[in-house]
Amino acid sequence: MSTPPLAPRSTFGGVIAVWIVAAVAGVSIGLFVPSEWRAAWLPLALGGCLILAFAVQLGYGRPHRFIQRVAASVVGALLILGVISLGFGLAAVVPG
């Protein structure tokens, strides 16, 4: 039987890291992708965040609440990319 670690690493940093990557990916899509292709690139960014969330949480090596941590990472990335895409939509509607 293995002994539990005395001070396990916090896994919340991995969730936040995926959110930051989602924000950077969304802003990068807004800056570098033409407006007619943004809607196609945002789901690809979300898929990349899903793969990153799995990789980060598997890297921690802690099975306890694994699904909840991955779900928190992906739902947060979805919300961040959704807000960014809402900004894209509003920017397309507003004349400027």
TrEMBL record:
The chain crosses the membrane at residues 12-33, 39-58, 70-94. Keywords: Membrane, Transmembrane, Transmembrane helix. It comes from the Bacteria. This is Uncharacterized protein. It comes from Microbacterium aquimaris.
